[in-house]
Automatic annotation (TrEMBL):
Organism: Streptococcus suis
This protein's UniProt keywords: Isomerase, RNA-binding
Record-given protein name: Pseudouridine synthase
KW Isomerase (keyword) present: yes
Domain RNA-binding S4: 1-65
Gene3D superfamilies per the UniProt record, alphabetical: Alpha-L RNA-binding motif, Pseudouridine synthase I, catalytic domain, N-terminal subdomain, RNA-binding S4 domain
GO MF annotations in UniProt: RNA binding; rRNA pseudouridine synthase activity
A family per Pfam: PseudoU_synth_2
A GO BP annotation: enzyme-directed rRNA pseudouridine synthesis
EC number: 5.4.99.-
Enzyme class: isomerase
Family recorded in the similarity comment: Belongs to the pseudouridine synthase RsuA family.
């Protein structure tokens, strides 16, 4: 949450009083003077002090989930099961939502949190969040394929994609496997990129997102972030 919202919840004082404390460098995050009242903080992960007094608030939760095909990346849906439905009642919190989206037929890594501003910051173009997908297609990926994707694919409507890093794992006339890394998130982008090359995606799974790795997490399962992953998450709080 934003620092000013955190202090509001902690009933530190009026907005005018909080601004005065901020200007006097009396608001500190992990011992350092706060840089902005709009910076993203989590009182469960960081020590927040105001005039030497530690703020005690329940922080946000962060889950890494392996979305199965058929489940939608949404908070609610009248027709389909959502990623939030996969969170147990014991682990559920008010305000949970998925950071970013995967198509309904796409599997893989989705971050779930109730930290409202985090998703916006992670998906903001300034962070250049890399996404890695494992892909299977119904045709050959030739020696020219990595260069084709690295050059920036152009769709039929003129939309041009940023360069993507393709690694071919296996190639044959009727079935090929690869991984692709990209920083964009256009609608159906990965599928359209392979169509532009001349093959159709038959299976798609996101295996990495913003430095977080899916690993061997089972379909439909989720887990809390590890201490190292939480430390990495701090890079999006700046």
């Amino acid at each position: 949450m934003r620092l000013d919202k955190c202090l509001e919840k902690a009933k530190v004082g009026s907005r005018k009083q909080v601004k005065k404390l901020f200007k006097a460098q009396q608001i500190k995050i992990n011992g350092q003077a706060a840089q902005s009242l709009s910076q993203i903080v989590d009182p469960e992960l960081q020590e927040i002090q105001v005039a030497g007094r530690k703020i005690e608030l329940k922080g946000s939760v962060y889950y890494l989930l392996n979305k199965p095909a058929g489940v939608v990346s949404a908070v609610t849906d009248q027709e389909h099961q959502t990623v939030i439905d996969l969170i147990s009642s014991q682990d559920s919190r008010e305000g949970l939502y998925p950071v970013g989206r995967l198509d309904r037929d796409t599997e893989g890594l989705v971050l779930i949190t109730n930290n409202g501003p985090l998703g916006y910051r992670m998906l903001h173009p300034s962070h250049h969040v890399d996404k890695v997908y494992y892909v299977e297609v119904n045709g050959p990926l030739g020696p020219d394929a990595p260069t084709f994707f690295a050059s920036g694919v152009t769709f039929l409507d003129g939309t041009r994609c940023q360069p993507a890093d393709l690694t071919v794992l296996e190639a044959s006339l009727d079935h090929s496997r690869a991984t692709i890394k990209l920083a964009e998130g256009k609608f159906h982008q990965v599928k359209k990129m392979f169509l532009a090359y001349g093959v159709k995606v038959t299976y798609l799974k996101r295996i990495s997102f913003g430095g977080f790795e899916l690993g061997d997490l089972e379909r439909g399962a989720y887990r809390q972030l590890t201490p190292n992953e939480m430390e990495h998450l701090f890079t999006y709080f700046d």
